[in-house]
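Working notes for the structural subgroup meeting. M.R. asked for a predicted model of this chain before we commit to crystallization trials. I am recording the input and output together here so anyone reviewing the notebook later can reproduce the run.

Input as submitted:
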Amino acid sequence: MTLRVLIAVTHLLGAGHLTRAAALARAFARKGHETILVSGGTPARLADLGQVRLVQLPPVRTAGTDFKTLLDENLQPIDETYLDRRQAILLDTLRSTRPNILITELFPFGRRVLAGEFTALIEAARRLNPRPQILCSIRDILVAPAKAERIAQAHERILQNYDAVLVHGDPDLVPLEASWPVDERITPLLRYTGYVDENENVIPEGHRHGIVVSGGSSAASLPLYRAALEAARLVNDRPWHILIGRGVSEDDFQALQGNAPAHAVIERARPDFRMLLASAEISVSQAGYNTVVDLLRCGVRSVLVPFEAGHETEQRLRAERLKSIGLAEIVSEDTLSGPRLAEAIRQGLSQPATSPPTVAIDGARQSVAIAASMVLSKPALHPTIDWSPLNAALERASDHGCPVRFWWRDDDAVADTPALDRLLALARRYDAGIGLAVIPRDLDASLASRLADESSAFALVHGWSHDNHAPPATKKAEFGAHRPVEALVAEAKRGLHEAREQLGAKLLPVFVPPWNRITGELIPHLPHLGFAGLSTFTDRSAASPAPGLLQINTHVDSIDWRGTRSAVEPEQVIAGFTGAIERRIAGEADRDEPIGFLTHHLVHDEVVWSLCERVIAHLAAKDIHFLSPDVCFGMETRSHLRSNGV
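Returned structure, recorded in token form:
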């Protein structure tokens, strides 16, 4: 299946971000996907893009490491009108492309100065129907902001808007948490792809001789080039090849050429750089992402001078990792000189040859596989869904003045898990409230911490232990008519006490019997135990089955428990919602009871996740959002007071 892919990138200093994004774009295009690369930085020479369509925005750049001040291609500060032009082109490209996959390079982990246009792009993408998979593409090492609130903001943007984060690195070499304080809530969204290698040509094996110096595409490497010329005069028993990036002015290039000794060749960067590097005894360079990929592919020893101006830490960390595995010597920028560089080169040349470590460098192809699988799983599972019965029922309810409200209950939570993270992220994405029926006996302290900042997620009491006490060959029940009512009362009381001790203000006193089965003998006791709500399955027969007890049930289950134990057919879910609405219109069910959607996040496979999101997204598109459980059960005042210690 051909997918439409839109990749948005803006490089501000060197061209490494664009180079990596272009490599991803080429990989998607090679797999037959329609791929558009939108570049917002200074136009740069790129390897053949093949079938990739390049859209160039009015470019912006920075002067050195001042990433707060954006300049145009004439190095003049830009204004809001300039930014508006960029954003208009970006959004027009989104609307005309209607991508299945949208990838933002670096944002929201960086590019805060362009947050306005990236946010507008993401919000517009989320309004598309169908909504594309939204992915973030980042390198192996990030530069974390000094302010904790900026890190938290990046995490919230990921949790609210993104389906995954493509980390283009190998955790065995550099895990993301080595440079960024990874919130455990976003950990389930991280997908390590391996390093993205823009040059997949075979590396020749042969005799190594000479020294190759390279400095990336920006003028920031001028100090390195000048020190290399000094070092070349001190290490004069080998040929030198010094490649100058296109970002260096012609005047500076000519000056370097004029100052070179006879055994050093000075020329502009070459497309066959990888071949040149593969035949070198030692490489001298900075420690940018693409440079290190080159070094790993060629297995050449190196002297690294990491770029550290403006408190940059990325290249230093990457250099330290290569040094730790015996592939590099390091010269700090603040100690860089010809003699110091010559000393490090001699040290590197004296070391015995070593085999390069096994590091994943198939990042482009892996990124395509990951992204495509995320999209293709949904259409493959449910190619089309006929929403017309549900839409018609909602219209009839409106015509009859019948209010239709929805709520969402998910059963069996006990701890903070990747599945729970995914569930809560889904709820936040569509502004949905959710009630988590928790098993008191098995509660882990991590659940309380996880729910603390979730304003529309509340816990409900899911029995005591979720053990089946029904006789064999009968329907399962924990609180059925199979034990003395005294035992049921004791366990219900224990469940409420334990859950309240663990969860405090995040617990609502709503009893949810496991398997949705409860003997009528227990119900009158629930208010005396402290319960104010009850929830089972199917339309309620009475709003208040006991004085002081409000019953609100669920009506549509997402899982085929008696068959595949995966998702029910979409038609069945739509029929369930439609039937519940029609019964309320006809007066066969209580109009005041919200219609409940039931899920079980711990057993969801991709089919269930896909169906749930499509249902929730369809309702949200009609401005129908699941009620927060405290509002649903009329406990919003009580939960607010408890959260404030009253």
